[in-house]
Amino acid sequence: MSAAELVSTPRHRGEPGRHSKTTRVVIYGLLLLFALVYLIPLVVMVMTSLKPLDEVTGGNMFALPQRPTFGAWVKAWGEARIGVSDTLGISGYFLNSIKMVIPAVLISSLLGALNGYVLTKWHFPGHKLVFGMMLFACFIPFQSVIIPMAVILGWFGQIGQSLSDATGYSFGFGNPIVNLVIAHVVYGLGFTTLFFRNYYEAFPTELIKAAMMDGASFFQIFRRVLLPNSTPIFIVTVIYQFTNIWNDFLFGSTFAAGDSSPMTVALNNLVNTSTGIVEYNVNMAAAIIAAAPTLFVYIVAGRYFVRGLMAGAVKG
Amino acid sequence: MAALDIVALRKRFGALEILKGIDISLEKGGFLVLVGPSGCGKSTLLNTIAGLESISSGEIRIGGRAVNDLHPSQRDIAMVFQSYALYPNMSVGENIAFGMEMRGVPKPEREKAVAAVAKTLQIEHLLKRRPGQLSGGQRQRVAMGRALVRQPSIFLFDEPLSNLDAKLRVDMRIEIKRLHQTTGSTIVYVTHDQIEAMTLATKIAVLKDGEVQQVGTPAEIYNRPANLFVADFMGSPAMNLLEGKVTKSGADVGIRLERRDHPPILLPLPISADGSKLSEGAKVIFGIRPEAVNDTESVDSNAKSVIHFDAEVEIVEPAGADTYVVTRAAGKELTARMRADTSVKVGDNHTFAFNLDKAVLFDPATTARI
Amino acid sequence: MTVSVAPLATEERKRSGVRRGLQDWLPRLVLAPSFLLVLVFVYGFNLWTLFLSFTNSKAFPSTTLVGLANYQKLWNWTFDTDPPSSWYTALVNMAIFGGLYMFFCLFLGLALAILLDQKIRGEGILRPIYLYPLALSFIVTGTAWKLFLDPRIGLEKAVHDWGWTSFHFDWVVNPGKMIYCVAIAGIWQTSGFVMAMFLAGLRGVDGEILKAAQIDGASAYQTYRRIVIPIMRPVFFSALVVLAHMAIKSYDLVLSVTGKNPGGAAELPSTFMYSYTFTRNQMAVGSTSAVIMLMTIAAIMVPYIYSETREKSR
């Protein structure tokens, strides 16, 4: 029962309690006003991306496009100059992001599930401390690990160089995408472990015990009992990781500069290129392309998204 | 002028009718218990009296005054909730005083009232504590204090003891009864526990599916249940309900209970029943509580009408203060209550006794008492 | 009826002995890689950064220790107000941005949650609208708001076109006011999340308490102010902690709203660290600022986590 239902006076017989009409109007009015405030930047972005440049610079940002065109989109995708790179368009960087995100999300989620399983169903002395330490890892500012990370990845690069000199193949050492995957997996472990640990904590331990009595091994229990029942938290974790890793900028710009940059870095370079005329419409188109995957995930699976935020932020 | 009058109360929720025409009256100083299984509408009824829910038709009068359209805070009522509903961020004293604060009672008066109530309930030492620091029983007393301080016409209790453990429940039940006797307040009390109903009430209303099955004193409800539902619901262990047939020979009306492997039990008409409308061979349900089924040594010596019969003992359940002995009649189990030190054993062929003063008859078709 | 169980039993025991041994160690073995990774990459690296802050590293890490010299430097810079050092600006901006960000996110979040709790029709549509900005990268948000607030093609121009020609809103290009624009963009992005937290908290309030308040005669306003909002204090603190954490870490947002590296007006500790380490080749100073950021976050998070886990085990 919401607070509202109970704090208002019964007015007519047979009608549930209601606010006065004016209060109702004010409430809806405020809510709609805020909805507008939240939507307008996105709307302006979309409209701007569909306008030819002269309409953008000459006209009102709230005006509907008079001559809507996808020219800016085409340019953003394949022809725009990103920073000082020779590669034109953001399509390549979009692909980079995909190549980085998929392994990073899968690996960190799977590891998180295993960790959560161990931490909740196979208690060992010190498990609380271990969990606490992994939990704290969620909250560090990345600035405090960037320098050592850069050093280590530099070494990897050298290893990769010598490996490819010797065998013609670098085994991924020094590959910027691989670097990013490593970074995101490591720094995502805290969150994924947290999510799965909280979920498995509430999972009935009796089921595990029953499986043990049936003779199932450690991994069999995980594979046959826990995992099949983990779909909700898996979705939440994957969505959370996907959003965070796709949207990351700091790691991308530090560890994968240049042609191997992810989408976010390319976007920032594009938008902040100060040479010549600022092509706002192209910038907006690129921004929307960058935002599209996470927005899509949000629209399709929004409530899992929210659940992830709740789980990550509120619980300790 | 009754303290509470509920007249033809109906409540509909969309297409579903939750309360189907309730009529109950409660005199001043009475203790009305609304009892029934889950979903019977007793909490809903209480909420409509409180004004927390609206009604579709009918009238509610408190102290002769129609309160249908009044806000809960204007109905001169106070309520004690199942989960105590104490404001967690306020101290005990502030909790009790909150209602007065909302009504604009000045601080010195509030403090006096709180102190008086705290003294009555013996919670003076808790006034500065927060609800989170109190035990279940203490919280319940604070909740009662919050209600008492309003000095309302009617107190409403919504299953206040359900959250307490068994021992505490008994202690608090006695406290509520004592409170009722010392303050003489008018109380409407909802519970699903029929023992609470029997021990606390001056008047019981048994509800089922939104309809009143019977209103009466505890004795009436227990000894003269209006229908099969009331008979079965009240009393633990439940009343024995056996199918029988009417026998008529001249002016004498009797009941015949068939048994497999044994001769049938022939009984005269129980004192409570009106045999004038019964016809030969009509089916009836014979109801008798376990404590009215004994044997020759434990039967009530003041009983006017006792019938003995032999039966085989199937189960013996020692229950501490008594022993329950189960046999069979009319195709069903028949539970008898005997003394704890009875020598009856499983398999014995024993002589049982029906105390027909306490027996009742029901019409199987209408389920009403005959 | 006896069966000779003895031989079977010993075999069982032997098998289970091995299995027991494996069972004891396998879980820890499985957890070990993750834990080690965290140990090295999180704790190890933090210690490494801490170490660097005690050195005189410039463009590359060096091992020459200089004691607390870097901390001394930053300490001095904190009070360099005329002209303001980058560090001083960073701290001031942190206070402004952090303060505004946290206050308005909490205020808006609570307001929207209370409004949405009034049995609104269409909540299913409104809630996702308030929340979607969270799905966006900070870069995208910054880009959008940079356009929106741009005086030549954004808000100022639009208002001019509508007739109010004396309207001025060039904050996003005004060095002194840039940080406020960053705050606006940040609030837009995160307030939905705070709203979701508060809404969940509101819905968790025991219905019977609200009934009691009704019987006590409390009006809607009084009920919210005296009862509901105080009950929400834990949610409030959770939100505060999350917001503080995000404010301290924010880097992408500043960059995208203000341009490549504002190098001045909209400096924040995060951009300070980055520019000193990678652009100005003063790794030691950068490390020091990173350590300070870490300490600040730890000062907020550790007591919070500690109190949360303690409450759980009660």
Structural summary, described in words:
Chain A is an all-alpha fold. Chain A has helices at 3-7, 21-49, 53-58, 71-79, 91-121, 127-136, 143-167, 176-201, 205-213, 218-226, 231-247, 250-255, 263-271, 280-314. Chain A folds into two domains: 3-77, no CATH class; 79-314, MetI-like (MetI-like fold), CATH 1.10.3720.10. Chain A has 14 helices and no strands. The longest helix of chain A is centred in the last third of the chain and has 35 residues, at 280-314. The longest helix of chain B is centred in the middle third of the chain and has 18 residues, at 166-183. Chain B is elongated. Chain B folds into two domains: 4-233, Rossmann fold (3-Layer(aba) Sandwich), CATH 3.40.50.300; 240-362, Beta Barrel (OB fold (Dihydrolipoamide Acetyltransferase, E2P)), CATH 2.40.50. Chain B is of the alpha+beta class and 370 residues long. With 314 residues, chain C is mainly α. Helices cover 73% and strands 0% of the residues of chain C. Chain C is globular, with a radius of gyration of 27 Å. Chains in contact: A-B, A-C, B-C. At the A-C interface, helix 1, helix 2, helix 5, helix 6 and helix 7 of A face helix 1, helix 3, helix 4, helix 5 and helix 6 of C.
Total number of β-strand segments of chain A? 0
**Count of helical regions of chain A:** 14
Quaternary structure classification = heterotrimer
Average pLDDT level of chain A: 81
Largest interface: A-C, 97 and 117 residues
Low-pLDDT segments, ≥5 res of chain A? 1-17
Name the CATH architecture of the largest domain in chain C. Orthogonal Bundle
In helices, the fraction of residues of chain A equals over 70%
Query: Helix and strand succession of chain C?
Result: HHHHHHHHHHHHH
- Could you name the CATH homologous superfamily of the largest domain in chain A? MetI-like
Q: What proportion strand of chain A?
A: under 5%
* Total number of domains of chain C: 2
Overall outline of chain A: flat
Residue fraction in strands of chain C = under 5%
Distance between the termini of chain A: 28 Å
- Topology-level CATH name of the largest domain in chain A: MetI-like fold
Percent range of helical residues of chain C: over 70%
Question: What is the CATH C level class of the largest domain in chain A, in words?
Answer: Mainly Alpha
Secondary-structure arrangement, i.e. CATH architecture of the largest domain in chain A: Orthogonal Bundle
Which structural class do the helices and strands of chain A define? mainly alpha
